[in-house]
Structures are given as structure tokens and as C-alpha cells.
Specification:
Blueprint (H helix, E strand, L loop, with lengths): L5 E5 L5 E7 L2 H15 L2 E3 L5 E8 L4 H19 L1 E10 L3 E14 L5 E2 L7 E3 L2 E9 L1
Helix pairs in contact: 1-2
């Protein structure tokens, strides 16, 4: 049986990459984010969880939405010393609204500079969406 949502790392010459699959675009975003933070090998700290909210333009394709979403999480993570593992999504006529739930971190073994568009394509395969994401390290 194939998992409904998931990710796995794949080899890339100079950078890191993950393959991600999910039932819809919002599940794909959340699963990709969990995969990205697993690559960082974060060290969980003590303290309360926090929630961060942000919005992105609804009038963009899935690839742009994915890159903007993950880059926003990277920025928030670096600025606030947190990692994200749970997400809520809502949409209005013009915007996608996101609430990202975080936990404090005391360090991480690896660093991602940015999410890239290298070979990026979000494709429907049967009843799920699939993509490969390459991270600049």
C-alpha cells in the first residue's frame, strides 16, 4: 500500500532534494515543509509552541506557491529559532492564508539557503500530486 502523503530524500550533485507526494496542494505544502525541516536535522528545544500566520497570492501556479510557502517558512524559522511541523490552510477570493505551528529549536546540523525552481514541476499522477524539490545549500 502506498502512503497518501509522504516524502523521501533523493541524491543531487551539489544540493539536497526531496520527492513529495500528497492528495492535494495543501497536503503537498505541509508534507514538503515537514520534509524540508527533517533535512535540517534540528535539535528541539524546551518551551511553548507558537503559531505564525502569513498569506500568499492565490493567483499563482502550484510551483510558485510551493516555493514561496517553503521560503517563507525558512525565513520565519531563521528569524525566530523555530521549526514547523503542523499547518492550517484557508483561502479567500484572492489569498491563501496559512497558520504554521512551530516548536523552539536550539540548533540544527544543516542549513538550507533557499528553495529553488530547479526542475520543479507539480504533477498529478493518478489520485495524487507529486513533485521533486531541490534546495540550495
Amino acid at each position: 500500500m502506498v502512503e497518501e502523503n509522504g516524502y523521501r530524500e533523493f541524491d543531487h550533485t551539489a544540493d539536497w532534494g526531496i520527492e513529495v507526494w500528497a492528495q492535494d496542494i495543501f497536503d503537498l505544502l505541509g508534507t514538503a515543509a515537514r520534509g524540508m525541516f527533517s533535512l535540517l536535522e534540528v535539535q528541539k528545544g524546551e518551551g511553548n509552541r507558537s503559531a505564525f500566520t502569513f498569506s500568499l497570492d492565490k493567483d499563482q501556479d502550484n510551483e510558485d506557491l510551493l516555493v514561496e510557502f517553503l521560503n517563507e517558512l525558512l525565513f520565519l524559522s531563521e528569524q525566530n529559532q523555530v521549526a514547523f511541523d503542523d499547518f492550517e490552510f484557508d483561502s479567500t477570493e484572492k489569498l491563501h492564508h496559512f497558520t504554521a505551528h512551530s516548536y523552539p529549536i536550539i540548533g540544527q546540523k544543516k542549513e538550507i539557503k533557499a528553495v529553488t525552481y530547479y526542475g520543479l514541476s507539480v504533477d498529478r499522477r493518478g489520485n495524487r500530486l507529486e513533485t521533486k524539490i531541490v534546495f540550495d545549500v
